[in-house]
Design goal:
The protein is built from 5 helices and 8 strands. It has helices spanning 12-34, 74-77, 104-112, 127-131, 208-225, and strands at residues 43-46, 81-84, 142-146, 149-155, 158-161, 164-171, 180-186, 189-192. A 4-stranded antiparallel β-sheet has the order 3-4-5-8, covered by helices on one side. A two-stranded antiparallel ribbon has the order 1-2. It has a two-stranded antiparallel ribbon with strand order 6-7.
């Protein structure tokens, strides 16, 4: 945090940093207005993952979502997204459809008339969700990989976890120092996120048909992208983090 905001909030260093981020976004918005660009600019504010709960008072909170950064429970991968485009996106509207940061690239390409690359990408155009009330997500399902292992898959309100290990915090850290975490294990577990946002009640025994449908989608993905848990390489696997 800069000297201007150091010690400024009642929340300690974490609060100071958040206040400075808030201020800096305000500076960007003010400059866009000053140069009459605000109505010709799409502003997207989001995050790449949930809070790093190991650091306690320096981490924020994902409640009521389960767990945080480093997991594919919703506390680790479900984040806020705020978009602003005066005259284009209706002010004050809320969308709870499934989207992901991988969708930003193809969406901007669509809005600007740019061509997508010839090679396969995973994101989809979500512009209809931005402009049309009642529009639905273009994703039939969304794959939740962590590293090279498929941890879970989501389709609509349903989220199916596959057997995997994950970290869980038992003692949050303080003052910038990490706390204590343990390794936990989950089996095949099914959650309805509309009824159970905290992923607290496994309903897999009640919905075998949902498990069968999501498992088929996951198996198809494994053949394409692979899955280290099942030692599947995947015929369509792409290199990570390279630009041609």
């Amino acid at each position: 945090v800069s000297d201007k905001f150091k010690g400024h909030s009642k929340r300690g260093l974490f609060g100071d940093v958040i206040e400075e981020i808030d201020w800096s976004v305000g500076q960007v918005m003010a400059k866009l207005k000053q140069h009459n660009l605000i109505e010709n600019t799409l502003v997207i504010f989001t995050s790449d993952n949930g809070p790093w709960l190991l650091y306690g008072d320096h981490a924020g909170s994902a409640k009521p979502l389960r767990e945080g950064k480093g997991t594919m429970w919703d506390g680790g991968c479900r984040v806020p997204c705020v978009m602003s485009w005066p005259g284009k996106i209706p002010a004050g509207t809320v969308c709870d459809e499934l989207v992901a940061t991988i969708d930003i690239f193809p969406t901007i390409a669509k809005l600007t008339g740019a061509e997508l690359p010839a090679h396969k990408i995973d994101g989809l155009d979500i512009s209809s969700l931005m402009f049309d009330d009642g529009a639905k997500t273009p994703h039939e399902s969304y794959l939740m990989y962590y590293g090279e292992g498929l941890h879970a898959i989501r389709s609509g309100d349903w989220k199916l976890h596959f057997p995997h290990g994950y970290i869980s915090i038992v003692t949050p850290g303080k003052g910038g120092l990490p706390g204590k975490q343990v390794n936990r294990q989950t089996g095949v577990e099914l959650y309805n996120l509309k009824d159970d946002i905290s992923e607290s009640t496994d309903v897999s025994k009640d919905h075998p048909e949902i498990i069968e449908r999501l498992t088929k989608l996951a198996d198809a993905a494994r053949q394409d992208l692979g899955d280290s848990f099942q030692k599947i390489t995947g015929s369509g696997r792409r290199n990570v983090g390279t630009i041609q």
